[in-house]
Structures
1.
Amino acid sequence: MTFVEKVADAKALVKESLEKYPKITVGCSFGKDSMTLLHLVRSVSVDVPVFSLLADTEFQETYDFEKRMVAQWNIKNYQRYIFTQESTDVASCCGAPKIEIAKKAVEGLDAWISGVRKTEGITRVDFQYIEEKNGLVKVNPILDFTELDVWRYLAVNNVPVNPKYSEGFRSLGCARCSFPEEDENESERAGRWKGTTKVCGECGIHTQPLR
């Protein structure tokens, strides 16, 4: 499938989901994938509510970028959820606290739109375009986008990105569990939870039921 076809299919899925699920929102971390997703969704409708789940340990650049983009894109239906990282264990970073705050973010909704991709890591290869858990639907429009597709979309559409990427990061989480690339042959999410048993793993919001 070509890049243009992937974008067209993603937009079609967004349009279909907005029509099918009246109570729907978009999850945005303000990373590269989220910015691709957010731009794509807003190309279909600018009225879709947006939420973020941010730890109190994010990079300062992430907070600054969030504030800048909400203002620059005039995102009116935006809700920020902040959670506290209480554990000192990096392997527990962005685990249970993030899942609990995510449940609040999607409470009472029919569905939410996510920016996960299959090629990010082995934990995501079996994800589907439409997933349902306990009555809550998760829509993954850019599931088949590669890392190159994401950067291509951002470049073609002049979408701003978090400045931390210029420092060698390929996958951004919080400041405690994210590290820049060290080897050109490592996987995209190798910098997440590096040095722990959770390396390349998941925070849980894409694998655990949120209802």
2.
Amino acid sequence: MLKQRKLQDELMDAPDLDPLPHQQALKGLRRINFFSRTAKQLWQHIRPYACPGTTLRILDIGSGGGDVLCRIVQHAQTDGIPVHASGWDISKTACKFATDHASKVLPQNSQWLVNFENEDAIHGTQGGTFDVVFCSLFLHHLTSQDAVTLLQRMKGLAIRAVLVDDLLRNHWGYALACLGTRLLSRSRIVHVDGPMSVEAAFTEAELRQLCQAAGMEGVRVHRHWPSRFLMHWTPT
């Protein structure tokens, strides 16, 4: 069943999705990300790029409910590292949800700033430069060509590193998605989309082919709980 990638339209990707079930799904994903320790995994790879006396600039593409980026900022606060963090998402509902969440869990000041903006990761034109650009649970939503386009855009925005954290397509991950989504969320959207996401995910070999097509040589891939990968690329 999982030998070939199967990309389908997930319920959360529907442009006419009602805000209330969308928000309920985002809350479910927040719990899943918490138990998956996604933010901690990413922060371990982001932190080494902090330099004394400077502010670390971070961009999360496809930021969704904003919980991963907010937790990364919390890790930075704990470590005393000033960061300016931005999140881009095509969904206005997600951006508002993320902004509201950030206002509840983060003190906004000059050392730790976070903002969320409505931006299309593939066809958008917003520019800028960031020390570290990352995405989490976003790559598997894309066709192979769009995934290459995304990686190329991330490469152009990042000064120091690009990170991609996502699902691996395998039977263990599929079983975890079926069980974990039901244990951690009451959202039907999460229950349906979770296993579909694993079916749409890339294998490590496929990921490396995408990176090569995007002109990203020398990527490092680290596997971690629960059946995920973290790809790390730095400019030469």
3.
Amino acid sequence: MQSVPEILKKIRKLELRTRRFVETAFAGQYHSVFKGRGMNFDEFRQYDFGDEVRSIDWNVTARMGEPYVRKYIEERELTVMLLIDVSESGGYGSTNASKRELAAEVACLLAFCAIRNNDKVGLILFTDRVELYIPPKKGRLHILRLIREIIYFEPVGKKTDLNKPLDFLNRVTARRAIVFVLSDFQAQNYERPLTICSRRHDLIAIPIEDRGEQTLPNIGLVMVEDPESGAIYEIDSSDGRVRSEFSKLAEQERIDRDALFRRKSIDSVSLRTDQDYFPVLRSFFMRRETRLRRQ
């Protein structure tokens, strides 16, 4: 059990690291890749040459005796929801960081981007159930609370079920939101709630991967435990056919997952524990920004 000073130190370190990214390369990108909910009326002003004729307010024009137009501004305030998988499989990491640790840092980066733009941020931690829900709010203290929960929350469940958090989100979030789902997506039969969520919200899937789950090293006879089910298997990793089949199954799961995202027109970006996430995430946002400009 870590002491309070140790916890605060870790949170502060994470805050400083992610804030540096936000204040440099990410400064304007977040704003440009997520659209507001619409246009709000701002004020009336006199008609100028070149203004759209359809923007003329004829009632005000009649009262003032000269043309007046309605001026609108984009409603920029957004609601950002972070859905983070805290199941047992997230504790796996064949490198320095576990999948959950990577998810935590990425979530912190997104949260600080949001508060920099005066947006609200909410959190759902899930396993095979909704473990924790924190409604969207603004402010640095709120974000620091979210970070603490993401890093140190102790879940009850062990398995991954994407149906329940997505269904829960669809019930508690009535207005359109930006939804980031950070998970290894090692779950079954979540297409329906994912589809509903993607229709209601701007959904971005962020699969968190580890190379140790994609390739099996040649280390002889080993005992392997499934962290979510607790089942233990004996595997002869020196057998080339076993290693090949292991890699094929992992690759097929990835292909099926990504095909589902494409079929439902869901933006996704895969991150790995053995790679620097920042260039990958930034490249994703740049591509998204370019695509939105063309629409």
4.
Amino acid sequence: MIRDYDTAVVHLMKDDALYGSGFIIDDHIIATAAHCVYSCEDQEFFNTKIKLVDKDNNETVVTPIFTDINKTYHNTTDYDKCKKYDYALIYVEEDLSEYGVFQLGVATSEYIDNHGQVIVSGFPSNKDYPDNYQGLPFGIRFKAKGKIDSLKDGRIYYDADTAGGDSGGPVYAEEAFITKNGTVYDYKTVVAINTAHTNEQNLNVGIRITPDILKFYNSNPNIEY
């Protein structure tokens, strides 16, 4: 893992304690994993807040207006039965445009089958920091590159390094484009939401972005455009 300075990746808080990760996809919308905002076991939402860090390292904490999760995820206490629905939407009143934005996209079967490269970003627990960052407090953003291994039951498996605290962060493909005037533009397309580590070949796993999930984020009836 290496330091990541992308301010569109945000830190989630549960009961005022730093907890998980999320990423901005619209001026008022943050995407994350459902288990970062809701307990299947207790069947209740956490008291979630979001810590934003701008390019000058200024920190701002905001409180969601509402949080949405999939109905199937909400209606079960068995995480194994609903883990492919482990995605959530957070809406905040504050304008997030200064922090940047990620695009959402559906990874093609060809990209998955050809083991396309992905980058995972988030806020790992400080005990899992790289050696040269050991001893520093929780709250540093890191990213790691890897390749897609496979797709199983709606979830994408990949070998990019992650750790506890990275849940809810973006799993994205990055491409650079050059405009006619020579400007280089980096385009980041999120193809999955990081949700867990699996012992299966030491891989990590995320919820694949699908057309239905795009509708969840982009056509949510609670959101006015």
